[in-house]
Amino acid sequence: MSEKACTNCHFITKENVCPKCKSTNFSEDYGGIVVMFDADQSAIAKAMNIKEKGRYALKVR
Is 27 helix (H, G, I), strand (E, B) or coil? Predict the structure, then answer.
């Protein structure tokens, strides 16, 4: 089972339903990974609209 990125929130997972936004739309074609530890203090999290810690794709195609 390969990892895929949610096309809605960019969260990277192996699940069939995104644990962050409950979407079922995924892509295995993504680029770059951001590991978020403290979304409240991160400028990148604000720019990407990330609210929780986790692994996210920078770009999902």
Answer: strand
Answer whether 20's CB lies under 8 Å from 9's CB.
yes
Structural domain that includes position 26: 4-60
Number of domains in the chain: 1
Instruction: For residue 43, give both structure tokens.
Output: 């400028």
Per the confidence metrics, is the pTM higher than 0.85?
yes
Mean pLDDT value of segment 38-45: 94
State the CATH number of the domain containing residue 31.
2.20.28.90
Beta-carbon contacts of 36 under 8 Å, excluding residues fewer than 6 positions away, are 42, 44, 45, 50, 52, 53, 54, 55, 56
